[in-house]
């Protein structure tokens, strides 16, 4: 049974709207209050059913255009600091997205190989409620040029939207899990304005308590 056929019943019952973009049109489906294209939705349903996160798995979560690419580079550099020297770290020659797979896109990679890797890192733009049972950033400047797209964004009908619900879910989850220290909620503005301090906090959250200023500055140069 293909993934499409398996989840056809669920998908067919969801609210749907047509989106026109670049002289083509496609459908968005509303699942758990958020909007996704069909391919992403199938992956979400598949991962919810099959993916089992380990205690050591680190998720980097944030909506589109909120600084997650920068954070991927920082997190990978911190986690791999004892595995590569400063000149051979693959983050220097590979895109951050190649080093940290995306949960809803690379579902086959995540399901089959994450347990075998030394670096259990996953990135996602999914809202908190769509991560399943196995498991932020502050909006600043999400560049949208078309009036129609701005309208969709404000109405909460953009990809992964509504945006504000996306952010508030992670903020609430970080407060709910504060005592267990499981979620580190980070604003893009904070990281940009006080990078050194927040990289140290991020490293501490990941278990690297003794990261020195010189090492942090090296990561920032990378």
Automatic annotation (TrEMBL):
Database matches in InterPro entries: P-loop_NTPase, Sulfotransferase_dom
Entry's Gene Ontology molecular function annotations: sulfotransferase activity
PANTHER family given in the database record: SULFOTRANSFERASE SULT (PTHR11783)
Pfam family membership, one: Sulfotransfer_1
Enzyme Commission designation: 2.8.2.-
Similarity comment text for this entry: Belongs to the sulfotransferase 1 family.
Record keywords: Transferase
Domain Sulfotransferase: 56-135, 138-217
Protein name from the UniProt record: Sulfotransferase
């Amino acid at each position: 049974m293909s993934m499409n056929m398996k989840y056809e019943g669920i998908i067919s019952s969801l609210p749907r709207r047509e989106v026109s973009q670049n002289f083509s049109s496609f459908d968005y489906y509303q699942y758990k209050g958020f909007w996704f294209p069909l391919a992403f939705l199938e992956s979400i349903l598949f991962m919810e059913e099959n993916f089992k996160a380990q205690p050591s798995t680190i998720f980097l979560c944030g909506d589109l255009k909120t600084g997650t690419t920068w954070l991927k580079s920082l997190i990978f550099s911190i986690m791999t600091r004892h595995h590569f020297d400063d000149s051979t770290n693959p983050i220097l020659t590979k895109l951050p997205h190649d080093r940290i797979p995306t949960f809803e896109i690379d579902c086959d990679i995540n399901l089959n190989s994450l347990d075998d890797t030394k670096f259990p890192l996953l990135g996602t733009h999914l809202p908190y409620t769509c991560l399943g049972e196995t498991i932020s950033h502050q909006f600043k400047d999400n560049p949208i040029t078309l009036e129609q797209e701005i309208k969709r964004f404000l109405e909460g009908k953009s990809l992964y939207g509504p945006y504000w619900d996306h952010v508030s879910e992670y903020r609430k989850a970080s407060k709910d899990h504060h005592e267990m220290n499981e979620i580190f909620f980070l604003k893009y503005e904070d990281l940009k304005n006080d990078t050194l301090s927040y990289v140290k906090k991020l490293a501490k959250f990941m278990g690297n308590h003794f990261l020195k200023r010189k090492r942090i500055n090296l990561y920032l140069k990378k």
